Structures
1.
Amino acid sequence: MDVIRVSDPADPRLADYTRLRDVNLRRHLEAEHGLFMAEGDKVIRRAATAGFAPRSFLLTERRAEALDDVVAASGAPLYVVSEETAERVVGFDLHRGALAAYHRKPLPELGEVLAGARGIVVLEDLVDHTNVGAIFRSAAGLGVDAVVLAPRCADPLYRRSVKVSMGAVFTLPYTRLDDWYGGLDTLRDAGFDLMALTPGEGSLPMREAMDRLDADARVGLLLGTEGDGLSSRWLERATSRVHIPMADRDIDSLNVTAAAAIACYELSRFGNVAARDHLG
Amino acid sequence: MDVIRVSDPADPRLADYTRLRDVNLRRHLEAEHGLFMAEGDKVIRRAATAGFAPRSFLLTERRAEALDDVVAASGAPLYVVSEETAERVVGFDLHRGALAAYHRKPLPELGEVLAGARGIVVLEDLVDHTNVGAIFRSAAGLGVDAVVLAPRCADPLYRRSVKVSMGAVFTLPYTRLDDWYGGLDTLRDAGFDLMALTPGEGSLPMREAMDRLDADARVGLLLGTEGDGLSSRWLERATSRVHIPMADRDIDSLNVTAAAAIACYELSRFGNVAARDHLG
């Protein structure tokens, strides 16, 4: 195992770990170098299990032992630093004491992600990494088969998304549409009923809309930007518009992660019902 | 209307607005002075509509007009500041340009909050203000009647909770138990079936547990701390343990706001079903 003690926060070998809270810098750096960050023992283990290749590990003394096996199996360099050095490199108190830089894999083809999928989530232009991570966690936990992202949706492999997803971004298949304008037509051509989640007029309660579907339908759940929701283009190209009924006139919608959780829950229920019908 | 232009960030009249991101300072200051912060036009309007009394308003020039009516009707002083002064007082770029300090009201008695309530949410020791706010928004939107907090649960009137709740913390009745240890017994004595949401062993799928309830049951949904969940004391004093079935073995639970959203959704469904039974 290649253990390298580093005390200079400016050491170029630590460049992957620079200023983790500087979103603009990180976006640029991670895209350019094709890397992403895993933080904390659990998430690092999950990245390893999911078959991602590490570039390096950055651990504080306290943490180095806990990840011994993962580091040893990887062959990647391990940089061991003091808590002070860690803080100066990453820009905040790294109280979990464990970071790893991983190589990204190329995103799969859309056809590969859709093959065999019954229920998928399609995210338009979400901007908040926490929301993207939370939606991946809910989608994976509730049995959604895949996630498809619009070209401008926030990155699921951004550190914050990875962390909030509890590593679900490593295991739930996903890819990105390369065409926003025509993207939904591609999904419809693949046989998906596209349900746009929107509190707007003319939308059906989600459960009612699901009851109208064929038992073997393939369903894509469309979720839009925080605040403004889905674009008019996507609303227009959806197969139907659905909403979660609200009881309180002052609260006209849920936040996107709450709405996504309920919608994925309904989707999993639909999937189960359909599966049971097939069996019977 | 009492318009006061202030250019000195250290002006004592702006003391309510000091260092809004300093959680420890703010907790202390807000508790001591019985105040809370509303941020942004929409939330400020909702606080006013809900009958809270403002102590003062802090608006940038650009924003002063948009809240003209609210300020005029209140009789509270309006401090108009430049964006630079605002930033130096509150400690970040106040891009929404609108803050108001409001007086808290005394929390209602538990009996008052529970009167007539069919479905309530009971939060144990949640620490994250964003989560508390999001749960209030979901609970209000989905028709939950009230929220009851354990003594140490994070404050729903903390700025971040208020904001994320979209003002639901102003309209959804809530109070705090003054006894953590015996608190659940008080709720049981009031006739509530207490469902502890927990992924642990021996818990029923939530929907199944709901199906077993009497149609006129009063239900309290118990949600625990981020990470560790409910305490063993509360698990022990619950009427039943329920979970949301997970499809993915690697994801053994949802985050607490996603779980709360789904649980409130099921609760509202149960309420509707029961209501229909009564009608029929």
2.
Amino acid sequence: MNKKLKMGMVGGGIGSFIGDVHRKAAGIDGMISLVCGAFSSSEEKSITSAEAIGISKNRAYGSFEKMIKEEAKLPEDERMDFVAIVTPNHMHFPPAKMALEHGFHVICDKPMTLTLEEAVELEKIIAASGKVFALTHNYTGYPMVKQAKAMIAKGDLGTIRKINVQYLQGWLSTALEKTDHKQAAWRVDPKRSGIGGALGDIGTHAENLVEYITGTQITELAADLSAFGEGRTLDDDGNVLLRFANGAKGIMTFSQIATGEENNLGVKIYGTKGSIEWYQENPNELVVRWLDQPKQVFTPGGNGGYPESSDYVRIPAGHPEGYLEGFATIYRSFAKELLLTKEKQPSAQHDFPTAKDGVRGMKFVYAAVESSQNNARWIKM
Amino acid sequence: MNKKLKMGMVGGGIGSFIGDVHRKAAGIDGMISLVCGAFSSSEEKSITSAEAIGISKNRAYGSFEKMIKEEAKLPEDERMDFVAIVTPNHMHFPPAKMALEHGFHVICDKPMTLTLEEAVELEKIIAASGKVFALTHNYTGYPMVKQAKAMIAKGDLGTIRKINVQYLQGWLSTALEKTDHKQAAWRVDPKRSGIGGALGDIGTHAENLVEYITGTQITELAADLSAFGEGRTLDDDGNVLLRFANGAKGIMTFSQIATGEENNLGVKIYGTKGSIEWYQENPNELVVRWLDQPKQVFTPGGNGGYPESSDYVRIPAGHPEGYLEGFATIYRSFAKELLLTKEKQPSAQHDFPTAKDGVRGMKFVYAAVESSQNNARWIKM
Amino acid sequence: MNKKLKMGMVGGGIGSFIGDVHRKAAGIDGMISLVCGAFSSSEEKSITSAEAIGISKNRAYGSFEKMIKEEAKLPEDERMDFVAIVTPNHMHFPPAKMALEHGFHVICDKPMTLTLEEAVELEKIIAASGKVFALTHNYTGYPMVKQAKAMIAKGDLGTIRKINVQYLQGWLSTALEKTDHKQAAWRVDPKRSGIGGALGDIGTHAENLVEYITGTQITELAADLSAFGEGRTLDDDGNVLLRFANGAKGIMTFSQIATGEENNLGVKIYGTKGSIEWYQENPNELVVRWLDQPKQVFTPGGNGGYPESSDYVRIPAGHPEGYLEGFATIYRSFAKELLLTKEKQPSAQHDFPTAKDGVRGMKFVYAAVESSQNNARWIKM
Amino acid sequence: MNKKLKMGMVGGGIGSFIGDVHRKAAGIDGMISLVCGAFSSSEEKSITSAEAIGISKNRAYGSFEKMIKEEAKLPEDERMDFVAIVTPNHMHFPPAKMALEHGFHVICDKPMTLTLEEAVELEKIIAASGKVFALTHNYTGYPMVKQAKAMIAKGDLGTIRKINVQYLQGWLSTALEKTDHKQAAWRVDPKRSGIGGALGDIGTHAENLVEYITGTQITELAADLSAFGEGRTLDDDGNVLLRFANGAKGIMTFSQIATGEENNLGVKIYGTKGSIEWYQENPNELVVRWLDQPKQVFTPGGNGGYPESSDYVRIPAGHPEGYLEGFATIYRSFAKELLLTKEKQPSAQHDFPTAKDGVRGMKFVYAAVESSQNNARWIKM
């Protein structure tokens, strides 16, 4: 019998957006079972969440420290296999470090840590631990993102010369943080978010997405960050010039004050032979333009898709998959790798974001802030 | 502790499209756990599937009869709560009847049965059983479908006058049934599909969708069915004139030989004050046109949505939900109703398709076939 | 010096929608000059229009009879070359007949005539006259329509099996004819429109478009026409089953009570190898789906277009052409043919709708009305 | 009789893209008649063009100097009223200056001149002449652009905070200038184009469009220009950070090496209450997002449009207008103003781009080049 991997969760009590997303995403493919959680720093609230979620209240803890210690004492076939960290940014490093040091694998929300220093340290801890670590840059889980990546890797688009990326949201257009809105509150608070606002929250997704798809890296950037919301100390909007290792140039724009936008992450990438365009809000279409052929539209599992993409499609073409499925793909690849590790087999190089991506993300945040503080001076990454 | 409902499955062995969809859909909201299955008529294959899926091989059965009998003997807190039937059409009625008669609730794929007679009989059996029965007309689970339904129910669009629906697929454009393609094979076989081909497979979805959204019913129809594929005895394409109880007129077109189409179910419904347009392949947009205001586009959880829609949204606006989530909504509503029944509480009228929809669907199939056999004569439904 | 062809207009005084369209369309390519007009049955109003338009008041007439007689007396290099008829339907036949019989070529708005009898007679008169006659089924002038036609003619899509067409407008959703709205008034008046309402006005466009693109013809139809507007005697909505000479089946839906729709003419045509989809409101995209390749999107003058299409493109790809340009293409092809006739050269078979299309359109109207009066019985065309 | 304004053309012989555009655009509204031209620097070629176009060969000149001198000698009701300049950039200033000084009005293609100095001088010459001067920044002629401008001017979108603009073409992705392609040749040649390549050709359109729509101005910019094409000395791609007078921030990206793009000019502008999105390739849709209402889509002449937009619509909603009509709107407004001037009436402030826009455009080009030469340092405009 193919037993499910056992997940413990840090954060993500009932009412949390991202905690629920992680639970649903972990559940879709039937490989993972949530068995315990430190859902809140209040044990009582943690138990309430556990009951609502449907797990035993004996496995609800009031702190991640307690969860890790107690679970470590349980028999191997009972205790959790890995920890999912879904807290605000300042609470990523501590539980990740402790879990790894107690022999647990870790899957963590992004950005990886509060500071670049933490990110660098965590990467070392992970390497030393021999455990599997995944970072939920979930947008890389979409089949059409994988199709774009495969097309570029195979040279279909020729040499990449222009890379534009946008991540536009409008939910902080008003002073939501001054209402009773928990997510807004910590997002605008440097103590919990770090030195980046929208930059850390969504800019890192944009950075990760273009580096993932193109296979090249940002070498330097010039960023003009703004805090339009009154009283905000962290950026809620940014425009960035980009230069890439392969000679490409690009531009990034991100915002949480782009009124009326919901979650409009999109990329346009131009090569010498062709180009791609993709938007997260309509994720099942990949537009490909060619030098001398009509424009094409690829779909998940549809005609002409590469195995690198179609292997990640769960249902036939025309049956749209969404955000949760893309997120689930990260969980599934992490789970497959974890199973190999558990069985002491060699890695199959399953495709999911790792500590390396996490460090890149934090370097990006630090470079952009430094640039912006210097009136958009070029900063190397 | 909020224990999960226990599901047993009939059909849906590894490699089945719809079995996997049911499993994933049942799993998303964390309310249901698959505990047993008669995944195949071969016990050996059933066990193989059970192992791949990750359930105990003791609970893998070689027939639905055996599953129902054996499970009924288990202690109440161990045995399955309900049966999910995911077999071809001819195998819907027998397991549904037996399960209900042994005290199990049932969720069944559509169309409800092989024949109209079976559908009428099953409706009676369900009523007599006091059990919960759901039919997976999954497209009614999409939030934007529920938004459309709510807008019409509230009178926002005025009196409905015109109802157009299409369901276009191309997967049977070639003679796929002559290759080693299981799904194509039973779809074109009257013994397993019944008297409707594309009509029963997707026409019933179209019929169900427009009746669900508009709240009115088809009273008569004139159908021109075709079997374009060489040697096919069942229709693979159809065009239908529709008249509705409220005076509206309409048109339906469905096809499985619409080359290049993936799963293009769409509706356009026109009232005296406004109209709606929705497509399943891009399910997170509902276009609403008005008599004297600019066109609007509603999104799940977005501005202006009614609670009747937004209550069914799992993640914030802009984070697309897809086919599995819509399907999961049917499972979740069924599960909620089942829990009430288990706890002997009154029904909360949770919104999911039932036997009534199943009988309508079979009446539609029979009326369309009779009409088409009489050169598209009007047939009352 | 390449002198411009001289146009006389019947109807189309200032304030007329379609008269202005004809003038602008005739003007775009610089081959035609408006020199005279019977813009109104009031000579005074006709002069007012002439002055506003910028032509000599000496060439403004109070009746088409007078215009034709007076112009015929002018020297050849001064008098009009052809008549453009832009009046309501009941005033198409009389001026067309008289103009042809006085040696003038004719371009006429659709439907060709008030009655089928007139259409048949006019076709004979045209043939006998040796003059050029064009019917402004303007939608055939769009480059992407021509691309679709060429692809089908070349067999790119294989055998055509399914033909769906819609023409949806909402401007008669309310009782506009009871306000001071001239166009609505004559459109709902059988004396001026004929036996078809929306059927004649836009249904004929839909019929013409699918026969033009596919090269096959409707052989029989079953129509369910409705007059939703209170007190209307002519249809304002219709749904039609179609059967074609080549074995294809299809469906047509048209409406002028489709609330919120502007001018939504669209076709979906499916062959054994591929299919096309095109909408007039976004005329510069032709979606082509294939059996085994990704969906393509063709654009006017863009990659992969056939000369049969790109020859009709005025400006580079990405510079949208619209309704007036499509209309102008009819005028230009008519003008080229007319020049050949003038110079007594053989026809170059320039591509524009003729009397044959006009007779088809009237037959369609008559068949649909007869079918609808017989409860959607099949009527041969 | 309302006589047509008489146009003389400099450049634009047969085969020229933009000359033909100007002719068609000038012709659509029936207010302007082409009477003469210096279509080529070869008198013979100029005559050939004149004949093909259909104007008298007596009015075909071998140089703009000759045209201006000869026409000036003609009687007032015979000679041209204004000059349309459609030559490469280096040939804008000389004919414009001479025409103005000889009493002719001028309409000129963009960018206004070869150099900023010329632009500043030309602005002075125009002011001194009392003649009407229009610059064909044609994209401001689209009704949906005017709707966007009106909505912002009325405060519907609140305070503008974020302004993104793109202008993406792919036609110079390959070394087209090394083939026999006249337009490519002069576009990459600093002697004929000036110091900006794509920057001057399309970047100025982007700059003009956002300043037109928003009513605010770029105050400083940081530009990263590239010449990807081998051997090119002028930019063929650029990314620019923008800061605006009203405090808004923005980003511009333009390219002529964006493979597969046709003419993808688009803007996204975000205010505190709402935002707009518009694309030139689909110009008849204006998407408006709101803080707390569903997204709307405005159409020319459609529901909810302001007179500031609908006054510029020629045909009913749903009948798409395109590039030529937008261009024609510039011509029409210029013509109306010219008529007032001719009749010595006060200006009605008709809305078309003028020398002021031309100077802004050249300042933008100079600032961007200076910035890019200084590694994207901020330059004030």
